[in-house]
Amino acid sequence: MSVEYKIKVRTGSRLGSGTDADISVVLVGSLGESERYVLDKRFHNDFEAGAEDVYTFKTQDIGELLLLRFTNSAGLASDWLLDFADVTSGDKSWHFPYYRWVLGNTTAEVLEGSAGLPQNVRHARMAEARRAQLDNRKKMYPWRPAEATAQLPGALDISKERPLPKDELYRGLTEGSYAGVIAKTMATIRLHLPLLADAWNGLVDTLGILKYLELPKLAERWQDDHEFARQAVQGVNPLHITSITALPEGMPLTDHEVRGLLSPGTSLAEALAAKRVFLIDFEVLEGIPMFRKVNEHGVEERRWAPPSRCLLYLEDSQRLRPLAIQLGRDPVKDPVFTPNDSEADWLAAKIYLRCSEGNAHQMVAHALRTHFVVEPFVMATMRNLPDPHPVYKLMRRHFRYTLAINDGARKGLLDEGGVFDDFIATGGPDKGHIKLGQKGFQRWKLADNKPRQDFEHRGVLDPAILPDYPYRDDALPLWDALAEFVSGVLAPFYKSDADLVNDSEIQAWWADLIEHGIPVDKMPCARLERVADLADILTTVLYTGSVHHAAVNYLQYEHYAFVPNAPLCMRKPPPTQKGVLRKEDISEMIPTQSQTLWQVAIGRALASFGEDEEFLLNEGGWRETYFQEPEFLAVRERLYERLRAQVDVVKARNAKRDVPYTVIQADKIPCGITV
């Protein structure tokens, strides 16, 4: 019996998505296959970018549709980006989401879009298609050899012979890089360099560079102690502040040294016992090699970022202020500076502390704890979960551009000769920044990225202890909303733990992940046997790539562009004596003009949004929609309700702040790591 089928095909809207190639399709169903049909309408330009084209044809009844087999017959520059296809026949309809490329001279099988676990697949042909899709993906997404990622998370193996898959290419079909924004920023700066003073003084001349860009708001108040403390709770790296009840070992500090800095009648011991003292500690830099290189003229260049630490005090006004800073760990060699010391000593101590924070931030809080720990989950998902798997459908849109941007970061920033060698203290021949990342990974576990557990561990979960902590207060509602969302998506498929244990695809995902990506001792469970564990892991990954990454990334221009606030290298060793330093000496300690240019340009590139950015709360809708099930749509709407409530609360809170904190407001947080 002949049956009429109508197929609607949507081409992607990205640059170059359309094609003039001959595209044909075969419908594959439970009762067999159709003939091959060339999708071509007379006097019509088929498959233009962003277009929807509809075709009608008749064939024998092939039963329930399982997949569409598209063939792209042409060669050079004929690649076609297929968003999705919809097929109807009578009162029946099928949806085929794809959002990937059908390359020239290739055939792609696009699986029917109903979400389901492998043990529930009813047709052998669909099971075969799922296996075939994964076999192909494993060739496209190979792991880097273990020795290439020693002591770091696993990563995609990319080479000249095996480039980044086109499905992962960055915005505008380019490889992941920061080159565009960096180049424009550097060009703007260099155009006006002749107007700057010949003798470089970074304390004042940085303003001359920024005159032709956006001036960070903190430039007007960067030397203020309260501003310094504010950055610990709502700056670019708000992950370190810890409540303490005793002085750190090797940090001698007396009541005399903090005279006038505590509440009247309060001793240092009493302030500690009352939990009004907090620690920021960059001990992770201890033993990390710093930049050291001799040029062709025999001149040695060195840089420093000491393992600094800082005490903050909660004043009666409920504001934090810095109490003491030590630029090392030796109680004999490394003095403890306080606001009672000379203006030059105290300013230098704060600048060195921020430099230490910057180096730890770039490689540990940012690169490692977001970019590099998410990549193994992208890899395991692409290699082991076919399109219809609910976990693939849940996570795929949150992995957009992550592999590309990580590849760009390695090549452009981290590898030998990369930008970090030009201006970061831990860069250079000894690869201190890589060793720093390795050290951070050695200490890290996935559970460390769970915000509530992290706040509790640092003793700052209770607002009674630390009243004004915008990162905590804005982040926790987002974690709770994402946790509910993930559990709600998984619930219809994993009705019991047995469903998870019997899911061969997710078990392969787990085995691949812990063998090549992240060691099992860093995961919250030794075996993936509980649905609650899967939901917890996926929530952590989703939170890490969105909320956590936004917190440590999108303030980089504001934080780093006025370089004296947070230089990423110091050109002199930290002072070991008090009362010797003059304020004019500080300009010789902070970055050179060239290093300043790089820091401004990189900060601007890393803090930029793309034109096609999608946010957690994306009121215009999600460009890539993989689920069609009504249960999912209800869960997604519930997520949106909670995200809208978070935005309202953040806006109301910021209306009362001297310095608003908007970086983890739900409608400003990208869905994943896209820069």
TrEMBL record:
Any GO MF annotation of the entry: metal ion binding
Keywords from the named record: Lipid metabolism, Metal-binding, Oxidoreductase
GO biological process, one term: lipid oxidation
Domain Lipoxygenase: 115-675
Oxidoreductase is among the record's keywords: yes
SUPFAM superfamilies referenced in this protein's UniProt entry, alphabetically: Lipase/lipooxygenase domain (PLAT/LH2 domain), Lipoxigenase
Superkingdom per UniProt: Bacteria
Domain PLAT: 3-116
One Pfam short name: PLAT
SMART domains: LH2 (SM00308)
Name of this protein: Lipoxygenase
Organism name: Cystobacter ferrugineus
